[in-house]
Amino acid sequence: MFDVFKSISLSHKTAPLAVRELIALNEDEAKRLMLRLRDVLGLSELLVVSTCNRTEVYYTASEDHNITIARLLLIEKGLTDTDAYLPYFQQIPNHSEAVRHLFEVCVGLHSQVIGDMQIPNQVKQSYQWSADLDLAGPFLHRLMHTIFFTNKRVAQETSFRDGAASVSYAAVELIDELLGERSNPTVLVVGLGEIGADVCRNLTNRGVTNITLCNRTRSKAEELANELQVRFADFDQLATEIQQADVIISAVQRDEPLFTPALLQNVTVLTYKYFIDLSVPRSVDAAVEQIPGVLVYNIDHIRTRADEALNRRLASIPQVEGIIAQATAEFGDWSKEMMVSPTINKLKNALEQIRKEEIARHLKHLGPDESERMDKITKGIMQKVLKLPVLQLKAACKRGEAETLIDVLNDLFNLDNQPVDAGDSSSHY
């Protein structure tokens, strides 16, 4: 009865990058999928999370629709050979496991870079898509706000968000420290492999917009520049771009250094010019630092920063898991109570019907004041009669024994034939 929340997940843990890229959804695709799931399966609460590292669908339903949802997702992406891709999906049909999985995803426990600070914002965006389509009901609203509050606790009470735990994040954090209060520094990124592209995205996420991309393959620089709304330059203009940049990030792959004293011989350094070398082997010649005003930070320096931050985050995992356990337990109690609220309302309606029928028999013999007094007295009696069954139901929920008590109440009061007053609430019991 309580297994209503389920999910499917395709992530970096279950699928290679080539597959993840095929299945990733943009906003329009995600919304189309949600509307299709609503129309085909009759689902009323849906959350679709899609990032470069994961695509997941969460939903509430009494039946397990995981395989069907995975197939519809694949078809939405034009992948008609669905059997070939189904093994990449993790199926989570159990309510408690699906709830905990979403908590862990949102705080960054399942991210490639553990404690990823982008994932909460990405999930908030997904939640907004659900709200836009009226596919976030009471359960999903309560779940998401509980998760957001839990994420704040993790940030405030642990070291799980401290520092930058990846090379690309650490490079961006170093730039923040080096340039201090300087507004919108000019950053040149040379080499747009995985690390270089990650640095660019992290820079724009931090609000840095004065970025120039430079790559030997011009089309690659142009494509990423269009995506991030920044400028790009041809590779033969490298010396000119170095002159204009405050920070030069190098992530090129070559056997010999690209940035040499010869390349920089005509570059004028008025204050400081920072080179951040993320390449192996090094692409910035150590002799460059002999030029007045030029400072070089290599990959070892960046990795040391990232490793220190990662170790602090790893040490915080038990504390994070404890916060999640507490939050999921409290949410579990609430969700179970929510599931018995229809029975509570049916019981209330059944007793209210009896009360009204009995009062109606005597109203013709009573004056207005007596009728009002009778109404108040009988309502008070009904509230007291209801109190114990409601408390017992809620207690049975926490013990996982509510179904038996619900069956007894249904039989005693013939509740199956009693309508549920959707506007009513049992929260005052």
UniProtKB/TrEMBL annotation:
Source species taxonomy: Bacteria, Pseudomonadati, Bacteroidota, Cytophagia, Cytophagales
Record's keyword terms, sorted: NADP, Oxidoreductase, Porphyrin biosynthesis
Domain Quinate/shikimate 5-dehydrogenase/glutamyl-tRNA reductase, residue spans: 176-303
Gene Ontology terms for molecular function: glutamyl-tRNA reductase activity
Residues of the site described as Important for activity: H101
Written domain comment of the UniProt record: Possesses an unusual extended V-shaped dimeric structure with each monomer consisting of three distinct domains arranged along a curved 'spinal' alpha-helix. The N-terminal catalytic domain specifically recognizes the glutamate moiety of the substrate. The second domain is the NADPH-binding domain, and the third C-terminal domain is responsible for dimerization.
UniProt domain Glutamyl-tRNA reductase N-terminal: residue ranges: 8-158
Further remark: During catalysis, the active site Cys acts as a nucleophile attacking the alpha-carbonyl group of tRNA-bound glutamate with the formation of a thioester intermediate between enzyme and glutamate, and the concomitant release of tRNA(Glu). The thioester intermediate is finally reduced by direct hydride transfer from NADPH, to form the product GSA.
Binding site for substrate: T51, C52, N53, R54, S111, D116, M117, Q118, Q122
Top-level taxon of the source organism: Bacteria
Assembly notes: Homodimer.
EC code: 1.2.1.70
Family (UniProt): Belongs to the glutamyl-tRNA reductase family.
Protein name per its UniProtKB record: Glutamyl-tRNA reductase
Cross-referenced Pfam families: GlutR_dimer, GlutR_N, Shikimate_DH
Matching Gene3D superfamilies: Glutamyl-tRNA reductase, N-terminal domain, NAD(P)-binding Rossmann-like Domain
Catalytic reaction(s) noted: (S)-4-amino-5-oxopentanoate + tRNA(Glu) + NADP(+) = L-glutamyl-tRNA(Glu) + NADPH + H(+)
Enzyme class: oxidoreductase
Active site: C52 (nucleophile)
Organism: Fibrella forsythiae
Domain annotation Tetrapyrrole biosynthesis glutamyl-tRNA reductase dimerisation: ranges: 319-415
